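Re: the 550-residue chain
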Amino acid sequence: MIQYKISCPNPASQFLQIELRFDCQAQERIHLQLPAWRAGRYQIANYAQNLRGFTASNLNGESLPFTKTSKDRWEYLASENTTLLVRYSYWAGKIDAGSAWVDDQQVYVNLVNCCFELLGRSTEPIAVQLDLEDYPHRAVTLTRSEASNWMAENYQILADATVLAAKNLHRETYSVGSTQFHAWFHGDIHFDSTSFINQLQAFSSRMIADFGSFPEPEYQFIFQLLPYPHYHGVEHRRGTVITFGPANSITEAEAMEELLGISCHELYHAWNVCRIRPEELLPYDFSRETYTQAGLVLEGVTTYFGDLYLLKSGVYNLPTYLRHLEKIVQRESQHFGWKNASIEESSIDLWLDGYVQGVQDRKVNIYSHGALICLCLDVQLLKEGSSLALVMREMWETFGIPFRGYQLADFEKRIADRFAQPEKITEFFDAFVRGRADLFPVLEDCLQELGILIGTNETETTVFNALGIQVNAQQVIQKIHPESIAHMHLMANDRLLSLDLKADSLHWEVEVERHERKLNLSFAKEEENFYPLLVLEKGSSTALRENWRK
C-alpha cells in the first residue's frame, strides 16, 4: 500500500513535512510526478515550486539516488526489493479554495498540491496519516479508517481530497434522502447558521430531485470564513472548499446572497465536472495541459444553474435572482471578446489566459458568457416542452452515473433531439458556440419570453460613458470602447488630467499623462452612451416563466 504521513512541527514556518512510503520490486523504475495543475482550474500552477528538501532512502536509512528529470518529476531504478521512504517539505502559505495554508490555528491543504502520483501504480489504494495532534478537529474528504488515518481508493481520489485540521471547527449537518451533508465553518460566524443550513438543504433537495440521485453518500461543505475580502470556491467529488470574506460582512443580505450563490454553484459541480466530465479529462492527467472545448458545459451550465437553483428552490425570489443575473448581463454587455474568439476557442485558452483579464476583448468568459448561452438554450427547450435541466439529467444518467466521458457533440445532440426541427440547434451552436455571432439580440428575445425586459438606467449615464472609457479611482483609463472615437486617441493606462467640451459642444478637449508625458488631445463628441447601466425589469408573468422557475 502507498502511505502518506503529514505533519507540521513548526507552523510558523508554514512548511508541511511529508513522508511517502511504498514498496517496490527489483528493477522497477519509479516515476514520482507532482501535479502541475488541479481540477477545477485549467491553468498550470507548478506546485513543485513550493517543494523543497526532497530526499529518498530505504528503511535502513541508506540514501537512494533519485534523479529529477523535469520540473516536477523524480525517477529511480530500484536495485532490489525494498521499501522506499521519500521525505520533503511543502510550503503552505497561500489561502484560497484550491491551495494550502498553515498557521497557529489550522493546517489546511488540498492534497493535489503536495502529493506525488506514483506513475504506473495510480490505481493502488493510498493511506493518509495526519500527525497533527495540536489540531484535533478534522474535516477531510476521504474515507476515515482510524482516528488519524484516512483512505483513498486511488490517486484520482487522493488528488481530489482536502484536509482541514484545526483547533476549532463548527459543524452543522443535514440530510437529503440517503445523503448526509456536513457544513464545516472555520473562522468567525456572524450569521444564523441554522437558517443558512436550511437554505443549503433547500437547493440541495431541489437539485437532487431534478437529477434523480446524488453522486455520493456523504458530502462536505468546508467554509473558510476570512477576516478580509475574498471569494473563491473549488469543487470536489465529496465536498467543496469555499473561502469567503470578510466574515463580518455576511450579516448583510448582499454578502449572504454571494455566499449562497457560490455554495449552490459548487454543489452543482458534484454532478457536472466531478462526474459528468469530458472524455479528455477522464481521468485527469495532472502532469500537463489537457485541452477541452467543453467550457460551455463545464462552467457555463454550472454558472447558469448555480443561480437558477436558488430561484427554483425558493432561496431567492425573482427580484433577487434578477439582480444577480443583471450583473452577468451588464458584464457581458461591456465585453466584445465574442468578436474575436468563440466559447469553444476560449475554453481551450483557459490554459493560456482564461483566469486573468488579458488582452482586451481577446476571448469570452466561459462562466458568464456561457451562462447566457445556457439561458437562451433553456428558453428554447422550454418552448419545445423540455428544459436544460432535463438535458443535464440525461447527461447524468448517460455519462455521470457510469462515469464515462462525453464529447461536446453529445451535449449538443441531447438538446437537438428534443426539437421538432433539430437543425435550429445546429444553427445555434454554429453561431454562438463554434462561431462568433452576437448573442445579445437572441438573449433579449429569450428574456422577453420569460417576461423579463432589459432596460437602461439613464440616471447613471456619465461623461465617461459618453466618451467611451472606463476609469479607476485614480482616473487611470482601464478600458476603451472599441467602437468609440476615443479608441483612436486614448490608450489604456493613460491618466486623465482634464476633460472638457469645447465651446462648440461638439468636441472633447482631453489632457492625459502617458508614460510621464502630457498630451493635449481633441476629438469629436459622439451622441452615444457606450457603457450604459443595464437593468432587468420584471414584466408581466408568462406561462413560460412559470415553467422555467418550477
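The two ends are 49 Å apart (CA to CA).
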